[in-house]
């Protein structure tokens, strides 16, 4: 197999690693391209296992880039959420099929709470199923240290995960009911679909108005949807889409895209809403909608 064909075969996996680490397409693409350039410029005789070599290089590049991004994110206005991967056609497997598991917005939100090395160790072990010896080589740490990082990360992730897995059709049906209630500005109906301690996280990036604090409670979360409909009567429309591998919603105001929304569901109630409003993160999403859509 040539370098080019090997890289083409591994590109989806490398992108999946880099996106989970960095949360944006551009950063993930840069990591993948840099990994290819390093393979192309390497001493091929010294690269005995090209696949493992590329995965290691991509992981290290992602860690370095994430460290560099941390200072930028500390100055970010409001909460930082990943760039959503949006698919409008559920029947299209698309090249992002490798992102279908463990890439939900809720999962990525928890990953943001981990250090770059914790994040890498956890992903390599729990998502990509690498042995601890391989992870230790990637990170330049002992196996014991890697086990400890994965254990700590796993505890934090489990604290944020729903207690009960929700089938995709049930998830979609619940969103349909919530979408109808939001479309009609029915705050009471929305509250019945939200957990009492539901939370809402919004990312405007300082580019558009957005909540700078996490909203807590079914009343406040429902109220945020109601207030937009109240402010723009008959102008708010929703469209279902698959966002980061799960059913989600696109919201349009006056026919223009306003946000991409992901939902964490537990025990037939919405427990968290993640709203990406930063226009820089929505460039790949249809920007307009017609009344017939």
TrEMBL record:
GO terms for biological process: DNA-templated transcription initiation. It comes from Duganella margarita. It comes from the Bacteria. Signal peptide: none annotated. SUPFAM superfamilies: NTF2-like, Sigma2 domain of RNA polymerase sigma factors, Sigma3 and sigma4 domains of RNA polymerase sigma factors. GO terms for molecular function: DNA binding; sigma factor activity. Residues 6-70 form the RNA polymerase sigma-70 region domain. Interacts transiently with the RNA polymerase catalytic core formed by RpoA, RpoB, RpoC and RpoZ (2 alpha, 1 beta, 1 beta' and 1 omega subunit) to form the RNA polymerase holoenzyme that can initiate transcription. This is RNA polymerase sigma-70 factor. Residues 110-153 form the RNA polymerase sigma factor 70 region 4 type domain.
């Amino acid at each position: 197999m040539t370098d080019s064909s090997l890289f083409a075969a591994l590109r989806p996996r490398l992108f999946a690693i880099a996106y989970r680490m960095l949360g944006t397409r551009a950063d993930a693409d840069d990591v993948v391209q840099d990994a290819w350039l390093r393979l192309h410029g390497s001493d091929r005789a010294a690269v005995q296992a090209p696949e493992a070599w590329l995965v290691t290089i991509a992981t290290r590049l992602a860690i370095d880039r994430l460290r560099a991004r941390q200072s930028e994110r500390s100055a970010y206005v409001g909460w930082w959420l990943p760039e959503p991967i949006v698919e409008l056609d559920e029947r299209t497997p698309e090249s992002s099929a490798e992102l279908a598991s463990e890439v939900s917005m809720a999962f990525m939100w928890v990953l943001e709470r981990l250090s770059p090395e914790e994040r890498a160790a956890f992903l390599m072990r729990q998502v990509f199923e690498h042995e601890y010896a391989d992870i230790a080589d990637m990170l330049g740490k002992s196996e014991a240290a890697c086990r400890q990082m994965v254990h700590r990360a796993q505890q934090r992730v489990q604290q944020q995960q729903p207690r009960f897995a929700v089938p995709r059709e049930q998830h979609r049906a619940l969103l349909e009911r919530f979408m109808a209630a939001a479309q009609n500005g029915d705050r009471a109906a929305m509250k019945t679909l939200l957990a009492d301690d539901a939370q809402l996280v919004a990312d405007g990036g300082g580019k558009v108005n957005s909540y700078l604090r996490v909203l807590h409670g079914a009343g406040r979360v429902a109220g945020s949807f109601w207030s937009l409909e109240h402010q723009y009567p008959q102008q708010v429309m929703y469209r279902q889409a698959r966002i980061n591998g799960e059913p989600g919603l696109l919201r349009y105001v006056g026919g223009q895209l306003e946000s991409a929304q992901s939902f964490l569901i537990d025990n037939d109630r919405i427990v968290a809403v993640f709203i990406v409003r930063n226009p820089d993160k929505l460039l790949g999403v249809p920007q307009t909608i017609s009344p017939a859509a």
